[in-house]
Specification:
The complex is a heterotetramer, with two copies of chain A (about 325 residues) and two copies of chain B (about 325 residues). By secondary structure, chain A is α/β, with parallel strands linked by helices. In chain A, about 40% of the residues lie in helices and about 10% in strands. Chain A has a single domain, classed as 3-Layer(aba) Sandwich (Rossmann fold), CATH 3.40.50.970. In chain A, helix 1 crosses helix 2 and helix 1 packs parallel to helix 11. Chain A is globular, with a radius of gyration of 20 Å. Chain B is about 40% helix and about 20% strand. In chain B, the strands form three sheets. Chain B has a seven-stranded mixed beta sheet with strand order 3-2-4-5-7-6-12, sandwiched between helices. A five-stranded mixed beta sheet of chain B has the order 9-11-10-13-14, sandwiched between helices. Chain B has a two-stranded antiparallel ribbon with strand order 1-8. The chains are: A alpha/beta (about 325), B alpha/beta (about 325). Chains in contact: A-B, A-C, A-D, B-C, B-D, C-D. Chains A and D meet through helix 5 and helix 6 of A and helix 3 and helix 4 of D. The structure holds thiamine diphosphate (TPP) (2 copies) and magnesium ion (2 copies).
Chain lengths: ~325, ~325, ~325, ~325
């Protein structure tokens, strides 16, 4: 039975939301494959899943062009996919294989795809804030109309780069978008316990960077906030800040069972997880369940194939270990 | 004596010192849940959240506040989580902690321990794998400690906590689960006294931290070939036990230094240069260093493995030294 | 002619103000002697005079007890004197002589007197913020009723420690007072040009640290703000922040002629300098000119003597250069 | 050829590179007024405040933003004011700039110059006097440059700005006013090629930065005593010119390294150890290092002077080396 047209809010762009839904499922399925790889000990290094936070990656990155810049954190798979990176190359990178985005030399915490403007996840909390400020600085020096965006966690707002980097972007009126994924935790610690003052938005405002807070599990809200922010930035309005509230549905890493939080809390959070929320909106708008289920199935199939490909991919040749170090000086044993 | 892991031995040392001295306290991210490697498990239950304190992700403040707290009569033990993250707090360690006593003409004392889990460990890649102990030996005012056994992790951590000067304390991540005999009770290991991990007459291998075990294994292999290597575990890099090394080189006539850190500019250079300066007449063969190539640490297991200083590589280098004379 | 009592505002504590006036003159005269020492090349290292900023040092430190903690910046002579350090030992320190507060090993930028709780000036901008947070942490751990105070410049609010240190003090609700001397300059740069947002107070508030702004050239205002802040801190209220607006009447260092600012601006600033302002209040309150002139004369005489003493003092013996390095390990050449 | 100071030569290099390449820009505190040592005087007038940019007191942001700006197609030259303050930006330099190219598998290039005025200078005390060049040689990915003459400060700074990898560039504060002949126009000095500052047959003295001049003076004194020292100015510490040093040692049979940095863990250890490893048969006497004692740098002029590596100390050490064989 077709849903009567009146049930669809006028301002819903169904195609855009379907594309969000598809991408959110791709991110979730990618993360699940990554967890599987961890379980199978095909990834030895830490994996930080972004399950439950997909709406932020999608809502922000859908407002960035391919030549806009993105930098991310340890929890960066979703951002990287949303910026347009190839899942196959990403999974190979996670498994440390040839054909990985960085030839297997960076891995999960340094996932990057410069082709799509993704200048890297970062293993050092908040370090990407400076890098983004600098990318925005370069854009301004070059007179381009690009935006540089940095996504980081709520734990990052307690490091110096939050102050120095946002101040920098404001002082030079740079085209920079800062997005704080406020998932309530920094590793095993509740960030509220270690954070003074009213929170990320107030800190940004105090540095002169206009800030908004959104429900980070509502992809439409994130999309809208990012659209406005990016438009203001492109219009020469200087840096903008978005705080997106969310919840980390998994442990901090694949190895973290997260016993430090009550099951109730996690169960409750699952009831607000962003994909189901969007699916509900779409269903209410008359999209067929089969379409939505198809997104999930397609995503799982894609990521199963991606994972299978990565498992079968060869290791990088050892020579890679000496490549791309620096032009001057031979780094090899025996050369010094 | 009890058998316990390297990680447990460190925990026992901290707990004993905290019981002994109410001014000892620890601070770092996630300590209330036991720390990222479980090194603090159970301590908050005994000592409470004021003395086993969580911290914001503010390495610079953790270290900088510890400097102020140390100058104001407490004895902080700060956890940097990974040695790599201590690079967010270098001003605090080098310009403040290390210099305060001297710069203020002896008015300040900075009894501070900075714990820095170091080294390559399971595809941790370039920003979570570094061995930078050599840097800190170059900084006047700092003590640099690199325990290689559970027993030493207890005895040296206790000594570090009792030190009235700042100590940079490197635990190797690959050894958390290493088991060994640990003396009961209040046993400290003094700074600057090396341990002879294995005796030998043909070659001296100087090492520290996890690489001591690789050197010992290499020595066993070499013994099967008739080469008797003496393995010296420096335990502390500043002060370091020159006398023990000189005495060993006087006996063997050959020196090799093996460490996980990048070879160029590593502390192996200091040991090799010092021996070359002082034991010229004793040396039957050139001194020899073995460390990592000068490349960042890669993620992919085979590329990471390529950088490791293994028993095989040590044995091979040792054979070359012995055959050169 | 005695001033009619009605002209004296009721709440003026004349004795307290006279003591402020005396101390401000002592600071000014000390700085002038230090400048003289620079001119005579008896101080080779940088001297950062606090001329024009005396009211902050005095107004803050008169609310601190001897066992309260103070840490300062490169521009720390005034703070150190106000905290009660001995001028003779301080001047010997500036000249690098035996009998200096630190045996001549620290000099101007590291002036310290632990006997009076002055834990040191600091050559690294903002580094003292962390140190103060830590001193306050120690006070709390030891269950003492002391306060730790940090004075720093407006340039310091652009470094990470401002965020990390204030956040630390707030999160642990520490007895810490942070004072920003806002003199409009960071070296040769106008701080406003390099500072985003509404300023220091807003930044502190955004970190949860209650802040007030005062006229830093009005010693009574500073005194009052500090009194209230210290009382709140001692009552267990956690950290407090004061911004005190002032002007640096000299160049950044003794060597800086400050050509980057118009003479008019400096002349105008001299018309608001804090000592004359306080003198006017006191004169209006009926204090005799001779009394006030006596303070100036006494201060100059004292600092002339202090300078003469330092000039005549011996160099530290060379052995000092190897003392107080660390207990373990011999630092001497040849010992390694 | 024109005669100019070390500081002016650096300025000329920067100006020429900025004229040549619009993507070169400089950023640091107070640059708009010429920089704290006048090294940028007049440049803002020519290039404007966007390309000769002031900065907040945010060393970490200066360096960190420069990494991002370098990865995004510009060539930043960042001014750290004092090498000591670069310690506020170590994560940005070591964990980010140095590793980005490798860690991202060659996707990133970081053409960045970090200028770090170094060394003892007029009672600047413990936090404004350090020589930490050795540290950076230990970090894969970094080029380390230590020019000792005006000509080299021009040629090496130009090469550094053209480098597609990050360069840590140490200018010694004591040499700003040093005059010398500087080639006109577009002359660069390649990395890794040492300069023989003085030829000699009896002893090789390796040095860099300001200490080269002390070594040359010492060599003149020694020449009066019949000892002919060869003085090698390394110019760049990574890469460093091993071949030139080996060739010289092959000729003289004796090696000494002199530098201002703390001797323990300094780059002198690397040079001495490398020569001890590779030139064993050539060496007639033990290698010898001369650096600072392992103490923070004191303020009082006599205590500061005591730490300086002077021509007298170098000559004395050289005599000892020569007389040992
Ligand atoms: C400078 C630094 N300190 C500590 C860590 C260890 N660490 C990795 S992730 C993390 C928590 C980060 O929390 P948040 O910024 O909120 O991001 P989230 O993990 O919640 O996405 C910590 C402490 C680090 N990577 N870098
Ligand atoms: C980390 C650091 N960067 C740079 C400097 C050099 N420096 C010394 S004082 C100063 C200006 C400080 O300005 P402000 O904090 O406003 O203090 P003021 O000099 O005005 O008292 C600068 C940039 C330093 N000492 N430390
Ligand atoms: Mg978080
Ligand atoms: Mg100022």
């Amino acid at each position: 039975m077709p849903v009567p047209a009146t049930q669809v809010p006028r301002n819903l762009d169904i195609d855009r939301l379907l594309s969000h839904h598809r991408l959110m499922w791709r991110i979730r399925a990618f993360e699940e494959a990554a967890l599987q790889a961890n379980t199978e000990k095909l990834v030895l290094g830490a994996i930080h899943p972004s399950i439950g936070q997909e709406a932020i990656a999608v809502g922000v990155c859908c407002n960035l062009n391919r030549d806009d810049i993105l930098s991310s954190t340890h929890r960066g798979h979703g951002h990287t996919l949303a910026k347009g990176a190839d899942a196959t190359a990403m999974m190979r990178e996670l498994l440390g294989r040839e054909g990985g985005t960085s030839h297997g030399k960076g891995g999960s915490m340094h996932i990057a795809d410069f082709e799509v403007g993704m200048l890297g996840a970062n293993g050092v909390v908040a370090a990407n804030i400076h890098i983004t400020a600098g990318a925005a600085h370069a854009i301004r020096l070059r007179g381009e109309n690009r935006v540089a965006c940095s996504i980081f966690g709520d734990g990052a707002i307690n490091r110096g780069p939050f102050l120095e980097g946002l101040n920098w972007a404001k002082v030079f009126e740079l085209p920079a978008l800062f997005v704080c994924e406020d998932n309530g935790f920094a590793s095993t610690t509740r960030t509220a316990a270690m954070t003074g003052g009213p929170g990320p938005a107030a800190r940004a405002e105090a540095l002169g960077v206009p800030a908004v807070e959104v429900d980070g599990n509502d992809v439409m809200a994130v999309d809208e906030a990012a659209r406005e922010a990016v438009a203001a930035i492109r219009a020469g309005g200087g840096p903008r800040f978005i705080v997106a509230k969310t919840y980390r549905l998994t442990g901090h890493t694949a190895a973290d069972a997260a016993p430090y939080r009550p099951k109730d809390e996690v169960d409750e959070a699952w009831r607000h997880e962003p994909i189901a929320r969007l699916a509900q909106v779409l269903a209410d708008a008359g999209v067929k369940g089969a379409v939505l289920a198809g997104h999930e199935r397609d995503a799982r199939e894609e990521m199963d194939a991606v994972y299978a490909d990565a498992k079968a991919a060869p290791w990088p040749p050892l020579s890679r270990g000496y490549e791309d170090v620096q032009d001057a000086g031979d780094p090899r044993q025996g050369a010094f | 004596m009890a058998t316990m892991t390297y990680g447990e031995a460190g925990k026992q040392a901290l707990a004993e010192e905290m019981r002994r001295d109410p001014l000892v306290w620890a601070v770092g991210e996630d300590l209330g849940r036991g720390g990222v490697f479980g090194q603090y498990k159970g301590l908050v239950e005994e000592f409470g959240p004021l003395r086993i304190s969580d911290a914001p992700i503010s390495e610079a403040a953790i270290l900088g506040a510890a400097v102020g707290a140390a100058m104001t009569g407490t004895r902080p033990v700060v956890e940097m989580r990974f040695a790599d993250f201590a690079l967010c707090a270098v001003d605090e360690l080098i310009n403040q902690a290390a210099k305060a006593r001297f710069m203020f003409g002896g008015q300040a004392r900075v009894p501070l321990v900075v714990r820095e889990p170091m080294g390559m460990w399971r595809s941790s890649a370039a920003q979570h794998s570094q061995s930078l102990e050599g840097w800190y030996t170059h900084i006047p005012g700092l003590v640099v400690v690199c325990p290689s056994t559970p027993a030493d992790n207890k005895g040296l951590l206790k000594a570090a906590i009792r030190s009235d000067d700042p100590v940079v304390y490197f635990e190797h991540k690959n050894m958390w689960a290493l088991e060994g005999e640990v003396p009961d009770g209040d046993v400290t290991v003094p700074f600057g006294v090396a341990r002879t991990a294995r005796e030998g007459r043909d070659l001296t291998i100087v090492s520290w931290s996890a690489t001591v075990h690789a050197a010992t294994k290499a020595a066993e292999t070499l013994a099967g070939e008739g080469i008797e290597a003496e393995v010296i575990d420096l335990r502390t890099l500043w002060p370091w036990d020159r006398e023990a090394v000189f005495a060993s080189v006087a006996k063997t006539g050959r020196l090799m230094v093996a460490h996980e850190a990048v070879q160029v500019g590593g502390f192996g250079a200091e040991v090799a240069a010092t021996v070359a300066e002082h034991c010229f007449k004793d040396l039957k063969a050139p001194v020899k260093r073995l460390g990592s190539p000068r490349v960042p640490i890669a993620y992919a297991p085979p590329l990471e493995d390529m950088l490791r200083v293994t028993p095989e590589k040590i044995a091979e280098a040792a054979r070359a030294v012995v055959s050169e004379s």
